[in-house]
Write a structure and sequence with these properties.
The protein folds into two domains: 1-36; 42-132, Single Sheet (N-terminal domain of TfIIb). Strand 4 (85-89) and strand 5 form a beta hairpin. The strands form three sheets. It has a three-stranded antiparallel beta sheet with strand order 2-7-6, with no helix packed on it. Strands 3-4-5 form a three-stranded antiparallel beta sheet, with no helix packed on it. The chain has 137 residues and is an alpha+beta fold. It has one helix at 14-35; strands at 39-40, 43-54, 66-68, 85-89, 94-96, 104-106, 120-130, 133-134. Helices cover 16% and strands 30% of the residues. InterPro entries: AspA/AstE_fam, Aste_AspA_hybrid_dom. Residues 44-123 form the AstE/AspA barrel-sandwich hybrid domain. It holds the Pfam family AstE_AspA_hybrid.
Length: 137
């Protein structure tokens, strides 16, 4: 499957549809070239590995007591360092990220994840290396 976004629920956007068509075309082109016996050289790619889901701060009654900090909003895939703001309480207090490494938050403040108690997902950047491949047919 291919998930392309961000796109608000119930909205069709031409730019997002175009991105989806392009990625599907690239996938189909790869399959065709592979099936024709083309060899693909080794490659390295940066990826983001999900480390943990982070919930909104809550009180003892399980009620949300802070919102995504404005400096974090719309910063998906951007580095988050120790001390950077994460949340802003309804009283105006900043809750900062406390971590021992740089993380890359994503799915920040997505409406579809509120009910799942997920404010964002912490990821780490890593590199994957693939060996060359060629169809054996």
């Amino acid at each position: 499957g291919v998930e392309v976004g961000p796109q608000p629920q119930g909205v069709v956007r031409a730019d997002i549809l175009d991105k989806m068509r392009k990625i599907v075309k690239h996938g189909l082109d790869f399959v065709q070239l592979f099936n024709e016996g083309n060899e693909f050289p080794p490659c390295t790619i940066e990826v983001f590995k999900i480390m943990e889901k982070v919930d909104y701060p809550r009180n003892k009654n399980d009620e949300v007591i802070a919102i995504i900090h404005p400096k974090l909003q719309d910063q998906d895939w951007q580095p988050l360092n120790n001390g950077d703001p994460l949340f802003l309480t309804l009283d105006g207090e900043v809750i900062a990220y406390k971590g021992d490494c740089i993380v890359y938050p994503t799915f920040i403040n997505e409406a579809a994840y509120y009910e799942k108690k997920q404010a964002f997902v912490k990821t780490v950047k890593m590199k994957l290396t693939a060996k060359h491949i060629r169809s054996s047919v």
